[in-house]
Amino acid sequence: DVKVTQSSRYLVKRTGEKVFLECVQDMDHENMFWYRQDPGLGLRLIYFSYDVKMKEKGDIPEGYSVSREKKERFSLILESASTNQTSMYLCASSLFRDGGVLSNQPQHFGDGTRLSIL
Amino acid sequence: AQKVTQAQTEISVVEKEDVTLDCVYETRDTTYYLFWYKQPPSGELVFLIRRNSFDEQNEISGRYSWNFQKSTSSFNFTITASQVVDSAVYFCALLFYGGSQGNLIFGKGTKLSVKP
To answer: Which of A34, A53, A99, B30 counts the most CB atoms within 10 A of its CB?
Structure first.
């Protein structure tokens, strides 16, 4: 079974702090994703990555950056946390990028990190 | 515009009732994929099913069934004889390409509460 592990289940940080959310997957998946989930808005894609050192902006990248130094690990960084970034953050992974397009394989999700910015 | 609409924000049923979760999508693409995911209270989204646009065959898996109708751009999900463990938020998602490298968009989810 695919396992996607997010480093923290709950996290509380202060405004202006630099925040790191870590995600690790154990199935050698090429694709990794970061979403945020807010009530009434569903899931919104922040960033995704097709390969090591590669990243693509999703729908709401502002205020975030990402790092993928190793295939199994994808980090989301809040450069200077703000209260409007209080949310549930979900990491996901999926199999290869086939023929240069986003894979149609199902995404496998972690348990989520509930982040509160005070 | 490409989008996914789950008009039902919340549904509440009593155990053993049947319940249908609606999903309506919009896309100009002829090749696309539709997904359903379940998110129980624990938080992890769990993949349930994938359908490609060329396969309109309905599918049944135990108490779950899916009705894909391209004529109405719908991909509805029915739970027969619901159980308390079915309580979760259910998301429908659309993967389309439209000449680009692909986009996956989710509906806003339907929260299902099954009461004993």
So the answer is: A34
Residues 6+ apart with CB under 8 A from B16: B81, B82, B83
Q: Is some CB atom of chain A closer than 8 A to the CB atom of B102?
A: yes
**pLDDT tens by residue, A45-92:** 999 998 898 898 888 999 999 999 999 999 999 999 999 999 999 999
Which residue type is seen at A70?
K
Asked if A41 and B102 come within 8 Å (Cβ–Cβ), the reply is: no
pLDDT at A35: 96
- Residue B75 CB neighbour total at 10 angstroms: 25
CA neighbor of B36 nearest in space, from B115, B109, B113: B109
Of A40, A43, A112, the CB nearest to B44: A112
CA gap B46, B23 in Å, rounded:
17
CB B66 within 8 A of CB B58: yes
Cα B28 to Cα B14: distance, rounded to the nearest angstrom: 39
Mutation target to probe the A interface, by most A beta carbons within 10 A, among B9, B48, B104, B106 is: B104
Torsion of the alpha carbons at B80, B36, B47 and A44, rounded to the nearest 10: -140
For A1, the token pair is: 């079974």
